[in-house]
Design goal:
The chain has about 300 residues and is mainly alpha-helical. It has helices at about 5-40, 45-55, 60-75, 80-90, 95-110, 115-125, 130-145, 145-160, 165-175, 180-190, 200-210, 215-230, 235-245, 250-265, 270-299. The protein is built from 15 helices and no strands. The longest helix is centred in the first third of the chain and has 38 residues, at about 5-40.
Length: about 300
């Protein structure tokens, strides 16, 4: 075989190997895509299998490694394997913002806040959603009792993403903790313009309205919160309490009964209080009825 023939054969073999790698990469990415679809559909175990197949087919597929890390962290609750998965991503791309952000969250869960801060700061210019990073830095500031930094980071989170509901909630709670309900209410009202997807801002609004003595507004806020988050059973007790304050005893009894049924044996001390309040409200209703009967007889 001539030298030229050997060169041509070498090129063909190299191209064939590259083509095989490309095919594996394409197939690997297909598994990742199917895994993402399964994960979004709530099928975490199915998704995990797809991501494992993708990683085995193409060990260089960092998307497969990244998504394995997500499943380990948030479904299997295996923080060590999650950390290893994200580290494998960073070994191939040290500037992967998503992996850096996840490493920061893992460090926070392990109580390594200084390490978490380093990861957050590295991820900040590299992530698609910097608001989440500012929120993470705010939580670190809260843990360190750094009020000024907490305020700054939460406001930056809102500036980066005006729909970031958790940032409004935590900022308003921050002001409430420092006995500044007026500023807290301003933040809540700003957040309610989003409008929020969950009920937490409405519930916090109810607390602030009650503090201001606006009981009906507090009730309205609780009811709006329930529309967004009907699973929050404790709200029924609060509705009963507020209705009692307004003198709407029958409605209060209705909400306290709803609370008792909804709890299904949970929070026994508060359920017992609800039962006691129901008994007292019936006594008060009977007393009012007797008084009314006396008035009518006199008339």
């Amino acid at each position: 075989m001539t030298r030229l023939s050997l060169l041509v054969l070498g090129v063909l073999l190299a191209l064939g190997a590259a083509s095989g790698c490309d095919r594996r990469g394409i197939e690997s990415q297909k598994f990742v895509n199917r895994g993402v679809e399964a994960l979004e559909g709530g099928q975490a175990d199915v998704a995990f299998d797809f991501f494992m197949q993708a990683a085995e087919l193409d060990p260089s597929n960092i998307q497969a490694r990244y998504h394995l890390g997500l499943v380990y962290a948030y479904t299997k609750n295996d923080l060590e394997l999650a950390r290893k998965s994200f580290e494998e991503v960073l070994a191939r791309d040290a500037n992967d913002g998503d992996a850096l952000y996840q490493m920061a969250l893992l460090a926070m869960k392990r109580g390594k806040n200084d390490q978490a801060r380093v990861y957050f700061e590295k991820s900040l210019p590299r992530v698609a959603n910097p608001a989440a990073v500012h929120f993470g830095l705010a939580m670190l500031a809260q843990a360190a009792n750094d009020s000024a930094e907490l305020d700054k980071q939460l406001r930056q989170a809102i500036q980066k993403d005006s729909t970031y509901e958790d940032a409004y909630y935590e900022l308003a709670n921050h002001y409430l903790r420092y006995n500044d309900p007026e500023r807290a209410l301003q933040v809540v009202e700003e957040g309610l313009k989003i409008p929020p997807q969950g009920g937490q801002l409405h519930y916090l609004n109810a607390v602030l309205q009650k503090k201001a003595g606006r009981i009906q507004d507090a009730i309205n806020a609780l009811q709006k919160g329930l529309e967004k988050d009907p699973t929050n059973k404790e709200v029924y007790f609060d509705l009963g309490y507020f209705m009692t304050q307004l003198g709407n005893y029958r409605e209060a009894i209705f909400h306290f009964k709803h609370y008792i049924v909804a709890m299904g044996g949970g929070n026994p001390s508060r359920v017992a209080l609800a039962r006691t309040l129901i008994d007292k409200l019936w006594i008060e209703l009977d007393r009012k009825a007797a008084n009314m009967e006396t008035v009518l007889r006199v008339y």
